[in-house]
Amino acid sequence: MEIKIICHRCKQKFSASTTTEIIICPQCRTVIPNRTPRKQSPPSGGDYGSSIPSLIGNLLKKLCHALKPATAPGLSSFVYPKSCGLDNVGALGNKRAVLCGVSYKKWKYKLKGTINDVFNMRDLLIQYYEYRDENMLILTEEQPDARLIPTKANIESSLKWLVKDCRSGDSLVFYYSGHGLRQPDFEGDEIDGFDETICPVDFLKEGMIVDNDIYATIVQPLTEGVRLHAIVDACHSGTILDLEHYYDNNEQQWKDNKPPSGARKQTSGGKAYCISACEDDQVAADTT
C-alpha cells in the first residue's frame, strides 16, 4: 500500500510505501518521517526495545520541524557562544554535545550546508531537549577559537571531552556534517571489508578518523545509565559507530553487524544509537 507525499522543502510530489519507517524525498533528499510505521522487534539478545524505530522517527520529526529553510544565510548571521565546554573547570552538565560541521571552504570539494546544519542542530537541542551552550562544543572552520576548528586533532579531543567522566543519567550527542569515505579493512572486523571514515578539514595531511577509533572513543566507554545519540550526515555513514546491530529500513528488521573477527564491539553498559544519512555503500547529497 502506498501513500502520497509532498516534500515540505522542495514541494516534490511522490509516492511511498506505508511500511517504510523513514521516507527520503527523491528530489532534494530531505528526510520525512512516516506517520504509519511498521513495528519491528530487535534481534534476540539485543536490549534495544521494540520502540527504537519509532523513537528515531520522533526525533527526526522534531528535527524536520526545527530545521530552518535552506537559504544559505551569510556567516554573519551566526552567533558563536562566548564560552564552551572546554572552559568549564567544574563538573560538566549531564547533557553534553559535540556538533561538528566541515565545509572544506578552501577546497574544490567544499560543502555548502554544513554550518547551517550545525546551528540548526544546536537550536534543536536547546529548544526541544534543554541542552545549554556552555555544555556544547561547536566545531566549524569559522570558529574564532582555534581549539574548535574541525581538524583531526580537535575532533578527536572533542570526542574524548564528550564522554569524559560520564555517569548514569548523562545524555550525550555527537553530530557530524561533512564528507565521509571508506577504506579497506585490514583487521577483519567489517562484514563488507571496508572501514567507514569521517574527514576532518585537514584529512589530506593528517588522515581520516576511522570508525574503529570513533567506537573506541565514544561508544566503548559508555557506562551503565549513559546514553549516546550520534547523527552523522555524511557519505558511507551507515555503520560509522561500529555498533553490533543496525536497522535495515528496506527489510524493516534489525540485522547483525558483529565483526567477523570476533572482536567485541559493545559499550561498557550504556546505550548508543546512531542515525546515519545513508548506508555504507551509498553517498549523501549536500544541500544549503
Automatic annotation (TrEMBL):
<dbReference type="InterPro" id="IPR050452">
    <property type="entry name" value="Metacaspase"/>
</dbReference>
<dbReference type="Pfam" id="PF00656">
    <property type="entry name" value="Peptidase_C14"/>
</dbReference>
<dbReference type="InterPro" id="IPR029030">
    <property type="entry name" value="Caspase-like_dom_sf"/>
</dbReference>
<dbReference type="GO" id="GO:0006508">
    <property type="term" value="P:proteolysis"/>
</dbReference>
<comment type="similarity">
    <text>Belongs to the peptidase C14B family.</text>
</comment>
<protein>
    <recommendedName>
        <fullName>Peptidase C14 caspase domain-containing protein</fullName>
    </recommendedName>
</protein>
<dbReference type="InterPro" id="IPR011600">
    <property type="entry name" value="Pept_C14_caspase"/>
</dbReference>
<feature type="domain" description="Peptidase C14 caspase">
    <location>
        <begin position="95"/>
        <end position="287"/>
    </location>
</feature>
<dbReference type="GO" id="GO:0005737">
    <property type="term" value="C:cytoplasm"/>
</dbReference>
<dbReference type="GO" id="GO:0004197">
    <property type="term" value="F:cysteine-type endopeptidase activity"/>
</dbReference>
